[in-house]
Structures are given as C-alpha cells and as structure tokens.
Amino acid sequence: MLGNQTMEEFDPILMLDSFDSTNPKDYIAGFPMHPHRGIETISYLSRGKMVHRDMLGNEEAISDGEVQWMNAGSGILHEEMVPAADRLLGVQLWLNLPAYEKMSQPTYHSIKKEEIPEISFDAGKIRVLAGSYKDIQGYKGEHWPIDYYDIHFDQEGSLELSTEMDDSVMLFTLLGDIIIGDTLIEEKTAVRLTPGTSIHLKSHHTPSQVLFIRSKPLKEPIAWAGPIVMNTQKELEQAFTDLQTGQFIKEKAQY
C-alpha cells in the first residue's frame, strides 16, 4: 500500500504491506531468511498466525490480535513463516529510524493480547497496540515515538481523537469503510491526514476496523534499497558490502 513513492508524504512510515486471504496457497511460503538494517518492522495480525525466527536466537509465534516488533538496527537476518489458517488478515509497517539510531542494537519483542490495553467507547473499542491513549500506556518502542491503535466500530457511531499540529498521522482501513470528517475512506485504503488538533472518525458500515498511526516526521534524507534503509548512498553501499563479506551481523549470533 505504501512504498518508496510515498516515503516523504508518510514520513516516518516507509512501507505498509496489507495482507488478507482465506487461501493458504497465497501465503504459506512465508518470507524466508532475509536481512534488514536501519528500520523497525512492526507486524500486526488481526487474524492468523506468524512465526518469527532470527539470527539473534529469537523464535516466537504471534496469533489473532497480536504484534511482533523488530528493531533491525545495525543488521539482522530473520524469517517469518505463516502456517495455514482460516484467514490471514493484518499489516506490516516499516518505521524509519533516525540517523543516530540506524546502527542501534537489534532487538525483537512480541506484544501478546494480554499486554494490549482495550478502551471501550460508545460504538466499539480501541486496542492500544503501542504508545499511549490518554493516560493508558501500551508497549513503548525504544527508538522513535509512535502511537498505534486498532480501532473497532461494532455499531454506528463516532470517535474523536486528539492530535498535535506537528504530528504525522495516518490511518488504514483494514476492514470496512470509514468517514473522516466528511470524506468516505473505503476499505484497504491508507490515508495521510493534514495538520490539525483533532480527528473525527465515523463508522459507515459496521463492523469496521481502522488502524491509527501517529508519530513525528523525521525529515531526514532517505537512501533505500530492498530491505535496507539508510541516510546516504555511501551508508547503503557499506551495508551491502557488509552483507557480502559476512560483516552484516555486528555481534556473534547465538543459534
């Protein structure tokens, strides 16, 4: 849904990959071992299962309503395998890292259902996948601020969310349509909002589910090739040299 053509407009979100299938043949090949550097990958599964493995020794599965959060930092090799399920529904975001965090220590964290606060409102609920909602705190990333909500409309109604003028705010309609202000946003659409101090969401058809992502723009140069995102072409070339010469992983990996 988002990629290198939208990276400036949606800064600091580099990529949004949406998946929705009831046919396991579409996805059971998974994503075999591959490298990343300079970003955080955040995968949210509304439905289905995903198994993460990496060369730091992490191996863990997430399922319905859970999140896996990986800081690639200075370099990591990982794979995501996807077992067959009735439905695979979710998204993966790539969150850009500021220049001073590009070579940070790689880490992995899964956010289980019991760690995700849920707040009810008149028409449904808000699940705080990361960041905070009012005085409710969810998982907090270590490298760049982000609030990430999974908003469910179970009946007709509306929701008002506060923002700051310098926020970078986007939404993705995972299921169903939504109305933002007076604009109808159809299912499976990513939108970047203009600056303001509040957002008015209204259900169009229920049930519906919308993902809300709020962060701060980095406003830094981006050098991006495949799974590696740095600030300069020189840094990008060094990353691929490291990969080819066995210097990509900066600490001895434990299997």
Q: What share of residues is helical?
A: under 10%
Return the average pLDDT rounded to an integer.
94
Give the termini distance in whole angstroms: 34 Å
Q: In terms of per-residue confidence, which ranges show pLDDT below 50 for 5 or more consecutive residues?
A: none
Class derived from helix and strand content? mainly beta
Summarize the main sheet.
Answer: 6 strands, antiparallel
Instruction: Assign an overall shape.
Output: globular
- Give the SSE order as H and E letters: EEEEEEEEEEEEEEEEEEEEEEEH
- Trace the largest sheet across and list its strands: 10-11-14-21-16-19
Strand content bin: over 45%
Q: How many runs of DSSP E, i.e. beta strands?
A: 23
Specify the number of helices. 1
Radius of gyration: 18 Å
What does this protein look like?
The protein is built from one helix and 23 strands. The chain is mainly beta and 255 residues long. The strands form six sheets. Strands 10-11-14-21-16-19 form a six-stranded antiparallel sheet, with no helix packed on it. Strands 1-8-3-6-9 form a five-stranded antiparallel sheet, with no helix packed on it. Strand 22 (223-225) and strand 23 form a beta hairpin. The radius of gyration is 18 Å and the shape is globular.
